[in-house]
Design a protein that fits this description.
eight-stranded mixed sheet; Rossmann fold
Length: 249
């Protein structure tokens, strides 16, 4: 498993140009479910190139865009300037060890990133710690289909991107969030038909990783492909996404 900074460092500009990351339906749903107020101070973890941070910043008092990769934060700074957003700050660091005081933020978010977290329990404990009482947690991420009992979806993702750790099932996310102390947990699921090449992006299909992914797909039987929601005849993956909201009591 490679360091996530290698993968995201060399692909930062590609992510900054990604329309899916900029305008994905999961972002719209996440922002709506958070019911933001203009007085809020928000922390966006694993902010990447800043699309979620910028969307938050347009609705709240201030946002901290927090990420583990310098190149991604540089892209976030560029994009925020292009959008005319002036109420964002940028901090480099690990989500498992946040350099913030207790009860600093009204909202803590992370989008399309939690499958890279090595210790989701610690991430949730830290999010809980820095959140104000009554604050909201918002997670939007890939999830493993509930029917995939062999872990094939995660194996596929790791072949594509070795910084991938694990996409949890929605049922497991609910357990983890409640264990960390959050309540009033709601989770919505999106299923997005995605062509193989679009799913593979920014990895080239003719690269070693791209070829390894194709070989693995071809090695799976019909039942396993069905359980992970992959149509091999049309090369369409049903990509499952979760948008989860929880509160700190």
């Amino acid at each position: 498993m490679s360091d996530y900074r290698d993968f995201f460092g060399k692909n930062a500009e590609k992510y900054a140009a990604s329309e899916s990351h900029r305008k994905g339906k999961d972002l719209e749903i996440l922002i709506n479910l958070l019911d933001l107020k203009d007085s809020y101070r928000c922390l966006d973890l694993a902010a990447g190139t800043g699309f979620t941070s910028i969307s938050l910043a347009k609705k709240v008092q201030s946002v901290v865009a927090y990420d583990g990769t310098e190149q991604m934060l540089e892209q976030a700074k560029i994009l925020s300037e292009q959008e005319g957003v002036r109420n964002m700050t940028f901090v480099l660091g690990r989500v498992e060890d946040l350099p913030f005081n207790e009860s600093e933020f009204d909202v803590v978010t992370t989008r399309r990133a939690a499958h890279h977290f090595h210790d989701k329990d610690q991430f949730l404990r830290e999010a809980f710690r820095v959140m104000k009482k009554g604050g909201k947690l918002g997670i939007a991420d890939l999830v493993e289909p509930e029917t995939d009992d062999q872990g094939n979806y995660n194996k596929l993702e790791i072949l594509r991107d070795q910084s991938h750790v694990r996409a949890e099932k929605i049922s497991q996310w609910k357990i983890l969030v409640k264990k960390a102390g959050f309540n009033n947990v709601i989770a919505e699921e999106m299923v997005e038909p995605t062509h193989f090449l679009k799913w593979l992006y920014p990895v080239d299909e003719n690269s070693k990783s791209g070829m390894d992914v194709k070989k693995y797909i071809e090695s799976l039987g019909d039942e396993d492909l069905k359980k992970m929601d992959f149509d091999i005849h049309n090369m369409i993956l049903q990509k499952h996404r979760m948008i989860l909201i929880a509160e700190k009591p």
